[in-house]
Design goal:
- By secondary structure, the chain is mainly α.
- The protein has two helices and no strands.
């Protein structure tokens, strides 16, 4: 494993941890089926099992957008560029 020299920044940063959490959260939520394998509460007549999964489509989109934005900022900061 390469050593971290005084002039370089660590590979794992708090921003990268947040990015990872944003990308992992939807997978964990959908793989934990016992948390949403039920009928109640219904939303406009749609059982919880279905509307919860559809809600995660939108939540996942938002989290992916946040992760992408944070990644772009992280890359610009690493390159030392100040342009937006």
């Amino acid at each position: 494993m390469p050593e971290n020299t005084a002039g370089t920044r660590p590979t794992i940063t708090p921003v990268r941890v947040v990015i990872a959490l944003c990308l992992i959260a939807p997978f964990v939520a959908m793989l934990w089926v016992d948390s949403y394998a039920k009928v109640d509460p219904t939303f406009i007549g749609i059982p919880f099992f279905y509307w919860y999964q559809m809600l995660w489509v939108f939540v996942s989109t938002g989290l992916t957008m946040i992760a992408y934005t944070l990644w772009q900022r992280d890359q610009r900061a690493r390159k030392g560029g100040a342009s937006a």
